[in-house]
Amino acid sequence: MKAGLEIGHTAEIDILVTKDMRPEFVGDAVHDLYSTSDLVNHIEGAAHKCLRPFLETTEEGMVSHVEVSHLTLTVTGMSVRVKATVSEIRDKKIVCDVEAFNTRGKIARGTVTLSITEKIWLENKMRELSLINQLAKQNPQVVTEQSKR
CA-CA distance, 82 to 69, in Å (whole number)? Predict the structure, then answer.
């Protein structure tokens, strides 16, 4: 990781809540509100925005833990500002405190932990998992037996 990232460093992103951000369960939109899953995605994005300028070209930041409380409702058409603040830096992990606000006030709070890994390691793991997936599709009985262990 490049030098310069310090506790207190912040990043923000602004979002306009659209109809495609509504909660869906089995393909059916439930109501015209900002879904928790989209909120978490945006919170992860703000945390990544904190870290991204400090990554070496050979590194990647991956979310390894998210803890979020979705405090109140936001209807489609409202604007949301998501803020991430670096609160802890240790070894190859960065913790960000995160908050989200709509025009009425705070709608979410929590933390996001990002793990820094080498891109080559990640690429190798993805290839390995792709191969395992291909083998599982060719021989589902083997996967079923292994998952019982």
Answer: 13
- Residue 146 pLDDT: 59
Q: What tokens were used for 149?
A: 């262990």
Number of domains in the chain: 1
Angle in degrees, CA 140, 145, 148, rounded to 5: 125
CA distance 65 to 95: 9
Structure tokens belonging to residue 123? 């690429």
Q: What is the pTM of this model?
A: 0.85
Domain ranges, residue 19: 10-118
CB atoms within 10 A of CB 18: 11
Return the percent helix, strand and coil in the chain, to nearest 5: 35, 40, 25
Is residue 36 in some structural domain?
A: yes
Q: Which two tokens stand for residue 73?
A: 């409702």
Does a structural domain hold residue 125?
no
User: In the structure, what pLDDT confidence band is assigned to residue 4 with cuts at 50, 70 and 90?
Assistant: very high
Phi then psi for 82, rounded to 5 degrees? -110, 130
Domain membership of residue 97 (yes or no) is: yes
Helix (H) and strand (E) counts for the chain? 3, 7
